[in-house]
Amino acid sequence: MADYSTLKSRMLLHSCCATCAAYPASLLKDSFDISLFYYNPNIFPEEEYYKRLADIRILADNTGITLITGEYDKSGWDKATKHLSGEPEGGTRCPLCFSFRLKKTAETAREKGFDIFGTTLSISPHKDSKVIIRTGESLAARIGIDFYRTDLKKKGGFKKAMDLSRKYSFYRQSYCGCKYSIRSNTV
Ligand code: SF4
């Protein structure tokens, strides 16, 4: 008979890039059966999108963690955020961007039979973890799946992420991801 006490909950972990995903994956993989979800249609230009995807693939291959890649829905993201093109990074466009990506993550998690979804977004010191958590929880209630509530940048999380990124020699981008953030040069 199977020993069900050792079964872990299945988590779909939205991952914005390998640099941000390596530490959360190492932190969570003992408690959850994780799959990484690369869904980032905000990333511009296309070469940048594929550059970040290439490193996520390396992370998945090195750790044996499954990688699921979502659609690169550039036009959908552009349409949703165009009216906020003049906003600075950290302004009102960013919560919409979080919601765009986390909604798809929650829907995919539910469709594919995951127990819970989470995101690596809160590891960045430039992103408001409270907004990310509020967004995740609201989507969880609407879509009917649990959200993993955590602020990954706490307890030196960002530094640990940078250390691990250096160890793997991952590409580290100089801007958040969208075309509007290129001008502000932060991650
Ligand atoms: S700055 Fe970053 S979080 Fe904000 S809209 Fe652009 S890609 Fe999304």
Quick overview:
This protein has helices spanning 18-28, 46-63, 74-81, 93-111, 129-143, 157-168; strands at residues 9-14, 32-38, 66-69, 116-119, 146-147.
What does this molecule look like?
By secondary structure, this protein is an alpha/beta fold. It has 6 helices and 5 strands; from the N terminus they run βαβαβααβαβα. It has helices at residues 18-28, 46-63, 74-81, 93-111, 129-143, 157-168, and strands at residues 9-14, 32-38, 66-69, 116-119, 146-147. A 5-stranded parallel sheet has the order 3-2-1-4-5, with helices on both faces. α1 packs parallel to α2 (46-63) and α4 (93-111) runs parallel beside α5 (129-143). It is globular and about 50 Å long. The protein starts with 8 loop residues before the first strand and ends in a 19-residue tail after the last helix. The mean pLDDT is 94. Iron/sulfur cluster binds at residues 42, 89, 93-94, 97, 176-178, 180-181.
State the helicity in percent bands.
40-55%
Helix count equals 6
Instruction: Name the overall outline.
Output: globular
The order of strands across the largest sheet is 3-2-1-4-5
Strand content: 5-15%
Ligands bound, unique: iron/sulfur cluster
- From the N-terminal CA to the C-terminal CA, the straight-line distance is 48 Å
Q: Please write the string of helix (H) and strand (E) elements.
A: EHEHEHHEHEH
Structural category is alpha/beta
Q: What is the overall pLDDT average?
A: 94
Gyration radius from CA atoms, angstroms = 16 Å
| Unreliable runs | none
